[in-house]
Amino acid sequence: MSLALEDLSAIVENSPVLIWKANKEGSAEYFSESWLQFTGRSHDLELGNGWREGIHPGDLPRCTEAYEKHFQQRSSFEIQYRLKRHDGIYRWILDKVKPHIDQSGQFKGYIGYCFDVTDNRRAEEETLKAKELAESNERLAERIAENFPNSYISVIEDDFTIGFTSGQEFTNQGLNPQDFIGLNVKDVFGELANKVVSEYNKSFAGKENRFELEINNQFQLYRTVPFFNDQGKVTKILVVSENITAARQHERELQNAKESAEQTAKELKEAQKVASLASWHLDIATDQVIWSEELYKMYGFDPSLPPPPYTEQKKIFTPESWETLSRELAKTQEEGIPYELELNFVREDKSKGWMWVKGEAVFDENEVIVGLRGVAQDITERKNLAIALQHSKRVSEENEKRLLVASNSAHLGIWEWDVQEDSLIWDNRMYELYGYNIEKDTPSFKLWAARIHPEDKEQAIKDVNDALEGVREFDTSFRVIHRNGKELHISGHASVLRDSKGKPTRMIGVNRDVTESRSKERTLENQNKQLIDFSNIIAHNLRAPLVNIQLLVDYIEQCDDAEKRNMFIGKQRSVLNHLNEVFNELMESIQIRQDKEIPSDKIVLKDQLDRTLKGLESQINEYEAQINVDFDSAPIIHYPTKYIDSILSNTVSNSLKYRSPERSPVINIKTKKVNDDVILSISDNGLGIDMSLAKKHIFKIRKVFHDHPDAKGFGLFLIKTQIDTMGGDIWVESTPGQGSTFYVKFINQ
Amino acid sequence: MSKIDKLFLIDDDEIFTMLFSLSLKKNKSIKSMEVFENGKEAINHIEDHANNGAMLPDVIFLDLNMPIMDGWQFLDRYESILPKLAKRIDVYVLSSSIFPEDVDRAKSFNSVIEYLIKPIANEKLVEIVANHEK
Q1: pTM attached to this predicted model
Q2: What CATH number does the domain containing B80 carry?
Q3: Smallest CA–CA distance from B74 into chain A, residue
Q4: How high is the pLDDT of residue B40?
């Protein structure tokens, strides 16, 4: 069944639906009566683009865009926009727009069906708002819950029902927050309900509030905040209840511990003081003072008399102490601040002492100061002891410091020996001096003695024993062989401490390394000796021929006898020769001393000796001398060739020169290695030397010890000079009539 | 007139002893002179004749620098036997040394009367002869 056109027209015109139609170009060509009634405009005004004037300017662009877009596609669409009603109020319109296709399928334009949805839309908006609010409330509650992990959060209505619950604490306590919604606070809190209601009421009265409750041994801190409605009335309150049990317990334990510590300290202090504690009490109202007997005793007043006036006590203290005490007492009396002081006081016998005083105010129940009380104790002994201790500590520290400075700067090693315990303490320097390891070695008498040069050990130990026995002070020097093999000269001094019976208990001493000064001394000594030698040589050996020449010249001048005069002139030659010889020798020895830097050669001793013996071949053969050589122990030495030649030829030729007339010469030449040194010995069976006469002179210039025509006293002087220059040594052992042995020490081989 | 019967010269220097002998011979106050080449020869002689005044000298001129036994060693030995000697002997050190240490050292011997530096003038000899008589 189909409706007639006029029926359709009637339906359209009477429908509350506003209808419009646009042609296929998109231009509006028809508006229903309902539309025109709604807008209150004429049909002509609305035609074309006239309708646009009724659309809310804020919605127009959106509408135009949607319309154009769907027009191109010939598709249907819905859009909401505000349309101005005849009364000037914008109403929300839902426009359902559909393409108009005729029966032949031709596109004829668009038709829109419009409904006023303003009322629906408001309802929708409110629903949305309510939803958003609820969501935001939920988020707020979550946020609160996050910030108060140990809290219950609830909203309480003004009839004390619980409107909202949240918070971690519900979960912590195994509760479901939803279970509490709708319950009344009075039912939830039981016997605490009255307290809770009265506290909640403070917030219902518009104030923020906080209070604490202890529920089932849990401490809860409640914070309540009022919610105001738009009329400024509090309709509900927010309650945040935080579980502070852990913090509170911690606090309580801390307090307990503090109290107990204070108590212990107090008890300890009291116990210490109780021995001779003096006390006093002053009643301010009556101005009555009560003294304990101990206080009378301490101050030296008569206990049978009433306590002296306060000002009388001034005499007891030194001015500074009295000033301090007066100041503190005034503070206690006026402000109730207790005092505790150590004061100087003067006894009746004028001796000074130290007093410990402590005082406090006595309060009545209204916290008014009604009196003072105090205690005092004579702490002179203790204080003096403390001062003495401190002083002696300081002194000993200073001494130690001073000693350290002294020992560092003077290269002093310090040692302390407990004689009875036989324990030895060394400072670092001692370890260094003796080449011991501070980590590994424990110093002992034995350890000390082990490093002492074998030649000095006996004497050094004797010196220690002599010091212990009080024979003489320990003031000695000895050589030490350091771990690195070097020889050190140590100068040692020590003091012996004895007990009341004179028995040695401790020995404290210092060791000083004097090697350097000793070697300098030695160098200086040597140089001095050389200088004296030179002076001697000049005084004796050069001047003697000069005197002779002078005398000869005198005689020649005075002599009338030609024959005698020729004799004198002839003598002049031999004196001049002598003078020349001495002068050359002197020059040679000076040369050696200046040859400090003469290089050492590697010398195969056997070869060198062969060369030397070659020069003495005729004598060796003539005297039928037998020469035995043993260089096995040290076949090679490092020495200037010139010197070793001089040493060998002088000693061997001496052995030949001073041979015994009774036997053929036998000469034994040997080397021996001793540590880093090589000792060469040249031993003969010759005349020997009277050592009691030769002594130190044997190596001096122009010293001869044999009545021998070839004795000149230069050879040994020369080689001694050479050996000295190289830092070695030469010495001789001899028995007259049996032979001599010369030893030469070559060092650092 | 004062005189010296016996004079010993202990010196190894041949030229000097020859020349010194010549000058002594000019001095009539000195009766006789013996030369010893070194301290050892001289001390041996003195020790051998310690009791015999006739064999001992009145004056000794002693050189210092000599082989075998020098002047110092001689003085050491001499002073050790001094109490045994039958005669007082005047000992003069006669040396070419002008070294002050030698002078001081010589003076440290009680038996040494004077340290004389070679050569000595004739006037000094006269003085020595004169001194001997006192």
Answers
A1: 0.40
A2: 3.40.50.2300
A3: A693
A4: 92
